[in-house]
Every structure is written in C-alpha cells, then in structure tokens.
Specification:
Order of helices and strands of chain B: HHHHHHHHHHHHHHH
Number of domains of chain B: 1
Helix content of chain A: 40-55%
Oligomer: heterodimer
Distance between the termini of chain B: 23 Å
Number of strands of chain B: 0
CATH superfamily of chain B: MetI-like
Strand content of chain B: under 5%
Order of helices and strands of chain A: HEHEHEHEEEHHEEHHEHEEEHHHEHHH
Largest sheet of chain B: none
Helix content of chain B: over 70%
CATH topology of chain B: MetI-like fold
Largest sheet of chain A: 7 strands, mixed
CATH class of chain B: Mainly Alpha
Number of helices of chain B: 15
Radius of gyration of chain B: 24 Å
Shape of chain A: elongated
Chain lengths: 417, 311
C-alpha cells in the first residue's frame, strides 16, 4: 500500500515536472514570438534637448517590448528640403518624424504623402490655440503638436543681475537704461548676446520687437500678407527702435547660438533672447530670470509636429508611438527635462516640473502667436534670416534690407499654396 | 579591301560597340538625359507651357544673380553683387593664388628630403569633405572663438566675425578656400616637374644659367600643358562651388556670399512651391559657362592631338 502510494506520488511529481519542462520549453523555443520592429524617429533635437527626449522613447520601448526605436537628428530646415524629393520617390527615411512647420505638413498631406492619424488622436485633448493645433485637412488629422516652445523674452542670470545691482525693466525706457548699464559693465556689443544658426535667433528677437511695437494686429496682417514692409508705420517703428539699439552697440555680432549661450552663461554678455528650450541647456535653471519687453501683448509660440509618412513599413507601430508621444505621459517626460510646455491638456499640473507650470500660468494672459518665418516659410524665411544678419552688422542699410524682405515676402505670399 | 578585311572590320566595330554599350547606357541615363531634361525645363514655365527664353531673362535679371544697382557702385559698395559676380570674384582671387602657390610649392619641395610628408599635409585640404571645411572655416573666422583673430591680433588688427560682415565675407571665403585647392595644383605640378628631362637643366647649368633663368626658360614653358589643366580644373571647381559655401555661410549675410550653384539649390528646394523654371535655366547657364571654359582651355590640347593624328 505504502509502495503504491509512493509510486503514485512519484508519478504525479514526474508528470508535474514533465509538464513544467514542456511549458518552459514551449515558452523558450516554440511559442510564436512577436516580431521585433525597429522604428526610425527623426527629430530636430541634439545635445541636451536630445537627452531630454530620449527618455520618452525609452518609456515607450518599455511599454511595447516588441518595438525598438532609433533616433536620428535632422533639423526642420534639412528635413524640409529632403522630404519632397523622397516622397516623390515614394520612400521615407523615417517612420515617425518631427518638423516645426505645420504648413509643410499640410502641404505634404494634401499631396497624399502622409498617413492619416484621425483614429488615434482626439483634437479635444490639445490646445485650442491657433498656431499650435493639430494639422487637419478636410477633417482628417495628419499631425499633432508635440511640446510647445515659447519665445518669451530676454533671459538673464539672477546671480549676475544681483551682483551688479540690476533689475528687470518695468517699461521700454527702463529697458534702454538697463542696456546702457550693461554696456558700461561689459563693454560695447556685450549687452545683448546675438545667436546665429541658419538665422532664426535673429528673427526671433526681431519678431519680439514687431509684436511689441505693432501689436497682435500687425502680426495677423503680416501672416495674412497684407503688410508692406517698407511702408507700414508699425513695421517702421519696430525696425527704427531695433536699429537704434544696434547702432548704440548693444547687440553683439551674431555667432553660433550655442556658443553665445555658453558665453552668456559665463557672464560675457548681459541678456540673451531665446526660447524656453534653454532651460534644459543650462547648469542651474533656478538661476534663470526672464523678462519680455515690458507690456508686450503677445508671445511667439510654436511646436514640433509629429507625423507619419505614408511610406513607412510599420504603420501600426508608428501609430502606437505617435499616440504615446502625443499623450500626457510622452509629453510630460520630455517637457519636464527640456523646459517646454505640454500641448496635451490632459497633463496634470502636479505632474509638471515647477518651471513648466510657471510658463503655463504666464501664458494665460498673453495672445499666442505663430512664428512668423515658420508660418510664411519658403523664400521669405531664407531672406528674412539672411537680411537680418546683414542688418545686425550694418544697421544703416535698413532701407535696402526691408526692400529685400518685402520682395521675398510678396513672392512667397503670392505663391503660397 | 578583301571580303576577309571587311568581316574583320565589322567584327572589330561590333566588339567596340559591345564594350562601349554599358557605358553608353549609364552615361545616357545619368548624364545625357538629365542635361537635356534640364534644358527642356528651362524653356517651359511651372505650368508646362513653353516660354522661349523668358526664364533665362527672368533668372539673369534678378538681384540674386546680377544686382546691377550694387555692381555699379563696386568697389565702394560692398557685396552682394549677385551670384554670378560672386563666382567671378571668387575666380579672380582664388585662381591666381592657388595656381601660383601650387607651382611654387611643387618647385620648392622638388628635391627636399621628407617633402612627401609636407605635401601630404598640404594635400589634406583636398581630402577633407568640403562640407567639413566649410564648418571649420565658419568657426575659424569667428570673433571670440576663431583662431584667425588671435593671429591677426598680433598684427594689431581688430578682431571681428569676418564671415558676418558683407564687405569681408566673400573675400574671406575665397581666400580661405585656397588651402583646400592648393594641394591639387601642387600635386599636378609635381607630376609635371617629374616629366621634364633632367638633361635640359644639366645643359643649362653647363651654359652657366642661374636657378631663376632655369625656372623661367625651362620649367615654366615646359609646364604649360600642366598649367592649362590646373587652370581649367580650378575654374570649373570655382564655378561649381556649392557645399563649402552652404556649410559656412549659406550664401549670407544678406546674400553676400551667394554663388550660382547655391542659387540653383535655393530656387529648386527652398522656394515653396519649387521654381524649376528659374533653377533649370540658371543651371543651363552655368553648364554653358563651364562648357565654354572647358572648350577654350582644351583648345590647345585638341590642337596637339589633331596635329599628331594628321602626322
């Protein structure tokens, strides 16, 4: 009896062990595994901005182990040049892409080169702001803004201002007084650091002056193509004030904007006009102070739009990635590190870093305006950037600079699709 | 001619054709067809309607290509003068310097021990991609971080961002591109020098000729075909220059360093919607200019070939 029980127990144990072995063998060798898919993401961020973005991709990979993501850097200016030719050949270098130009996305969507993402994006989840909204064509969604950048004004180091007894200006006269003091402290061409790249840092500060002196109405007129750059009194006022400051030697010569950022942070320059992305690029964000031109009514705001080319090999996986990145989690991971503002309104305030929350609050009282050169684009953008570089070193050539901008503006507005 | 000879000739022609066919196909697809298609596009507008020479008129008489207002003020008015003039200025600065430097370096380093190392260093400019060279130059001439201002400081010259000022940007670029191309002319001249028979120099020495006379009466005349090659290749390089300018200044500031190839690129890729009419007509003009240069430069070489064939 005892022997038979022992045998029975042994048989049961053997059966269990065999079952377990079979299960593990199946799991390890025979169970059909989901195919690992590698998505290529193309975005404009490098350096610290890229470091801020990669954790969002890592979080996605954790959630979807069968999808790997490779990130490649390509600026909007380069992507905008490469994609039309690629799309014509029905190919794409990436599965998910980011670009700062919604007009470009709309253009590509109209030509049928982009994948519709209406089924994964609810427009109600995003800002209703005019210049940072989802890109739709005939009610179909093709792109969604991912994290907003804001170009709020002049940045300064609190410690630098404290050391020299300086304070942010309360009006335009005080602003000019501050520049004079900075010139005394640092020398000529040191009060305001001027960044350069392909040209946008100069256009950003110029746009700030245009909004300050021309108001939001001028902005709308400029974007609508209703303004003559050489004759409009509001444009003249903004440029006259700007060139007066240039002639006074307050602005530095333009140089690579990241070099200027380092130099400004080291105290070689007083203030620096930049977007909120510099929060993620400095060593002590808590030392950052900010002021716009006092009393400004609007602020330039923009984003990088995510879209999927129709020619991706993995449309479903690409949609999963876009859905995640455009969602609250995908945005807040990046924004908290990069200092940008989530465009998804479902992001909870308690999930935002303090400096992100501050920006969200500050934006409430201001009109959000689209980046002028990004919105108009084309030849205008190139000419605007290029002519401003010239104005920066030769403010006395203002008339010719404005004439060239006007020429390109007319040509671009006239031919804009 | 016997029947056998005719057969042999036919077979020979057939063999030649068979060997040439792959090249003919590839050249036709990737060279001849694009050239003719570009020319075709220069004669139609964006909608595809034929417009005769209108695109050529439009492309030439715009300030991006020829800025007559500013050209009239030359040299007191600073660039931009238009892309075409910038190419000409580039040639005027770059061609004599690179040709002369290449020749001098080749002559000086001819019998020097370890010259190959020096030549290799000088040739580095040719090895580095032009895009990289452009970026190097962009930073080298920067006011606060560029090394050039440090050296100029020793000479008492005020530091400035040389590529940021329209009056200096074009000349700075043309001069800074000398190091890129000098390696080429030096190597070609070095090869040319090796081909000059040593007996000529020995005979001249017996006659009591000095080194300067030897240079002007033996070296220089015998290097004439090499000089033609160097000058032709250099002009063609200068006419087609693109990536170096694109990566260093993008044609700025204010179009002061814009060149023809860059303008073609801007017309085609930077204008929304694209302007193939303007881009292609400018490309055709550029092709015509380069072709003319090549024909003029190659004329003596062709003459020599014809003379040899006639003999």
């Amino acid at each position: 009896m005892k022997v038979s029980k022992l045998v029975l127990a042994l048989v049961i144990v053997i059966i269990i062990l065999a079952g377990l072995a079979a299960y593990f063998a199946y799991e390890a060798y025979f169970k059909p595994k989901p195919k690992i898919v590698t998505l290529t993401v193309i975005g404009p961020w490098s350096g610290p901005e890229m470091e801020a973005f990669l954790p969002a991709l890592e979080e996605f990979e954790k959630r979807y182990p069968h999808i790997k993501v490779e990130y490649r850097i390509m600026r909007s200016e380069d992507l905008g040049m490469v994609l039309p030719a690629q799309f014509k050949a029905k190919t794409a270098i990436g599965d998910v892409m980011f670009i700062a130009w919604p007009w470009f996305v709309a253009e590509m969507a109209k030509k049928g080169h982009l994948l519709e993402i209406t089924d994964i994006i609810d427009p109600a989840d995003y800002w209703p702001r005019e210049f940072v909204d989802v890109v739709t064509i005939d009610g179909r969604i093709y792109a969604v803004p991912y994290a907003a950048w804001v170009k709020p004004g002049f940045w300064y180091r609190k410690s630098f201002f404290k050391k020299h007894g300086l304070k942010p200006p309360a009006n335009y006269e005080e602003f000019k007084g501050l520049l004079a003091k900075l010139k005394d402290i640092l020398g000529p061409k040191r009060a305001i650091a001027s960044g350069d790249g392909v040209g946008w840092p100069l256009s950003d500060v110029t746009e700030h002056f245009l909004i300050y002196f021309g108001g939001t109405e001028l902005w709308k007129d400029l974007i609508a193509g209703k303004v003559d750059w050489t004759k409009d009194a509001r444009v003249r006022k903004a440029f006259d004030e700007l060139t007066a400051l240039l002639k006074e030697g307050y602005f530095s010569d333009p140089a690579d904007w990241t070099i200027r950022l380092t130099e400004w942070w080291e105290g070689k320059y007083g203030i620096y006009f930049m977007g909120n992305w510099i929060i993620g690029m400095v060593k002590k964000p808590e030392d950052l102070g900010l002021f716009p031109l006092p009393g400004i009514k609007g602020i330039v705001i923009g984003s990088d739009w995510i879209f999927i080319p129709k020619y991706t090999k993995y449309p479903e996986e690409a949609k999963l990635l876009v859905k995640f990145l455009a969602g609250p989690k995908g945005q807040v991971i990046y924004c908290n590190k990069a200092g940008k503002v989530p465009t998804n309104i479902k992001v909870k305030p308690e999930d935002m870093a303090p400096f992100v929350k501050e920006q969200v609050e500050a934006l409430k009282g201001l009109a959000a305006l689209g980046d002028l050169d990004d919105t108009i684009g084309g030849k205008f953008q190139k000419t605007f950037w290029d002519q401003l570089k010239r104005l920066w070193v030769h403010p006395e050539e203002l008339e010719d600079v404005l004439a060239k901008i006007q020429e390109a503006y007319l040509e671009t507005i006239k031919k804009k699709p | 001619m016997s029947k056998g000879d005719v057969m042999r000739t036919r077979t020979l022609i057939l063999n030649i054709l068979i060997f040439l066919l792959p090249s003919i196909i590839l050249v036709s697809i990737f060279l001849i067809y694009p050239i003719f298609y570009t020319i075709y596009l220069s004669f139609i507008d964006i909608d595809g309607s034929p417009v005769g020479f209108e695109n050529f008129r439009k492309t030439l008489f715009r300030s991006d290509v020829l800025d007559f207002k500013r050209i009239r003020g030359f040299p007191s008015v600073s660039p931009p003068y238009g892309a075409l003039v910038h190419n000409v200025i580039w040639i005027a600065i770059h061609l004599p310097i690179t040709t002369f430097l290449g020749l001098i370096l080749a002559v000086l380093l001819r019998n020097v021990k370890g010259a190959s190392i020096i030549k290799a260093i000088i040739f580095m400019g040719m090895i580095i991609p032009l895009v990289v060279s452009g970026i190097i130059i962009h930073f080298t001439f920067e006011k606060d971080t560029g090394i050039v201002n440090v050296f100029l400081g020793f000479l008492g010259i005020e530091p400035k961002s040389w590529l940021m000022y329209p009056e200096t940007a074009l000349y700075t670029l043309a001069l800074s591109s000398v190091w890129i191309w000098t390696g080429f002319s030096m190597v070609v001249y070095s090869a040319g020098l090796e081909a000059i028979p040593k007996e000529l120099y020995e005979a001249a020495e017996i006659d009591g000729t000095g080194p300067i006379q030897k240079f002007f009466y033996i070296t220089l005349p015998l290097l004439k075909p090499v000089t033609i090659t160097v000058v032709t290749m250099t002009i063609l390089w200068e006419l087609k220059i693109f990536d170096f300018v694109f990566s260093s200044t993008r044609g700025g500031p204010g179009g002061a360093t814009n060149v023809l190839a860059l303008q073609i690129y801007f017309d085609y890729f930077f204008t929304i919607p694209s302007r193939p009419d303007l881009a292609c007509s400018l490309a055709s003009i550029l092709t015509l200019i380069t072709l003319a240069v090549a024909c003029i430069a190659l004329k003596p070489v062709i003459k020599i070939a014809v003379r040899r064939y006639a003999v």
